[in-house]
């Protein structure tokens, strides 16, 4: 079943979320991105607008996925949310607190595409690092996380001795180690094989359901986005903005069986159609010059 995307609608950008009465008890201030722009200096006095007027709102505790063509500015949005980069204009709030660049947002866990583990530290000491920095050593918690991501037996290994997928799992465990109230994930499962990816998807859902962590995940995996998310936000091609955010109304916990239901396939088809549409046009309706590389598998 294929749905036609509604790219022109005002249903978009989270305003519908804010109006939903049933979300009132969870609060609507989980993620609030308002009129966000980012212009990079591109050398020789040139400027490059990476994102333009990004708006997104989601309730506290929500799991939100961000999908969009390669280069549309997804990582830029995440870096600004993480306080790692400064917005050119606009504002960003997380769990009711304004994000300030250079100031770590309290209770934030981050796992980026590049696992960025410290090569001289073992797996367990990499995972323990955020806790050590906070002065909360907790060996039991680290052991639990290692088991959770399936790295038992590799505690003492160095990152260089692990496969790419194992390094990513260590990176996810490290992000979870601080028991985050806000979790930012940038294509965290990108390098994993399908089986491992699905397994970790379901583990992530389990952890998320236990802890009600406000989560924003960038992904190329539409099925993964539908499986995990309360809302999927779709960004247009560069300069990116959020064209729509659709609620995923499938009961939890979602399972492997969920993925063979009509409802699941309908969401995947609808989002695939939207992604295809936004990849072929920029926001002014002109054909994008890079549409060929825009849609990722
Ligand atoms: N520090 C930077 N300086 C200049 N341009 C950048 C910088 N970071 C990202 N960009 C550009 O901004 C655009 C969006 O990048 P990014 O947010 O990484 O996209 P995505 O994550 O959606 O693939 C890209 O064209 C990229 O080259
Ligand atoms: Mg990116």
The N- to C-terminal Cα distance equals 20 Å
- Average pLDDT confidence is 84
Name the CATH architecture of one domain.
3-Layer(aba) Sandwich
Strand content: 15-25%
Q: What best-fitting shape do the alpha-carbon axes yield?
A: globular
Helix content: 25-40%
Which structural class is indicated by helix and strand composition? alpha/beta
Rounded to the nearest angstrom, the radius of gyration is 19 Å
CATH class of one domain: Alpha Beta
Bound molecules: adenosine-5'-diphosphate, magnesium ion
- Classified in CATH, the superfamily of one domain is P-loop containing nucleotide triphosphate hydrolases
Helix-strand topology string: HEEEHEEEHHHEHEHEEHH
DSSP E strands, number: 10
Q: What strand order characterises the main sheet?
A: 6-7-8-3-9-10
Per the CATH scheme, the topology name of one domain is: Rossmann fold
Main β sheet profile:
6 strands, mixed
Enzyme class: hydrolase
EC number: 3.6.3.36
Keywords: ATP-binding, Hydrolase, Nucleotide-binding, Transport
GO molecular function, one term: ATP hydrolysis activity
Could you give a short description of this structure?
By secondary structure, this protein is an alpha/beta fold. The strands form two sheets. A six-stranded mixed sheet has the order 6-7-8-3-9-10, with helices on both faces.
Describe the structure.
This protein starts with 14 loop residues before the first helix and ends with a helix. It has a domain of 199 residues: Rossmann fold. It is 32% helix and 21% strand. Strand 4 and strand 5 form a beta hairpin. It has nine helices and ten strands. The protein binds adenosine-5'-diphosphate and magnesium ion. The site of magnesium ion (MG) has 3 residues, from helix 2. This is Putative ABC transporter ATP-binding protein. It is an enzyme of class 3 (hydrolase). GO terms for molecular function: ATP binding; ATP hydrolysis activity. Its EC number is 3.6.3.36.
């Amino acid at each position: 079943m294929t749905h036609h995307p509604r790219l022109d609608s005002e249903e978009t950008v989270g305003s519908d979320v804010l109006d939903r009465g049933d979300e009132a008890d969870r609060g609507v201030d989980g993620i609030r991105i308002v009129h966000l722009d980012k212009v990079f200096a591109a050398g020789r006095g040139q400027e490059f607008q990476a994102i333009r007027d990004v708006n997104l709102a989601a309730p506290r505790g929500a799991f939100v996925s961000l999908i969009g063509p390669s280069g549309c500015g997804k990582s830029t949005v995440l870096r600004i949310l993480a306080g790692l980069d400064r917005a050119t204009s606009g504002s960003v709030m997380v769990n009711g607190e304004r994000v300030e660049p250079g100031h770590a947002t309290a209770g934030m866990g981050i796992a980026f595409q590049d696992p960025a583990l410290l090569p001289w530290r073992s797996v367990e000491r990499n995972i323990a690092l955020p806790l050590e920095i906070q002065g909360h050593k907790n060996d039991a918690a680290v052991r639990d996380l290692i088991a959770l991501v399936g790295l038992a037996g590799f505690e003492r290994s160095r990152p260089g001795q692990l496969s790419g997928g194992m390094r990513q799992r260590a990176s996810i465990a490290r992000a979870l180690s601080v028991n985050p109230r806000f979790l930012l994930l940038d294509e965290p499962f990108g390098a994993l094989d399908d089986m491992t990816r699905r397994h970790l998807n379901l583990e992530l859902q389990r952890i998320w359901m236990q802890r009600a962590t406000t989560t924003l995940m960038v992904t190329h995996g539409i099925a993964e986005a539908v499986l995990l998310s309360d809302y999927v936000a779709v960004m247009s091609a560069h300069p990116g903005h959020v064209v729509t955010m659709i609620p995923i109304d499938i009961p939890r916990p979602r399972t492997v069986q969920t993925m063979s239901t009509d409802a699941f396939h309908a969401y995947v088809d609808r989002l695939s159609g939207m992604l295809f549409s936004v990849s072929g046009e920029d926001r002014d309706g002109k054909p994008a010059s890079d549409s060929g590389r825009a849609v990722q598998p």
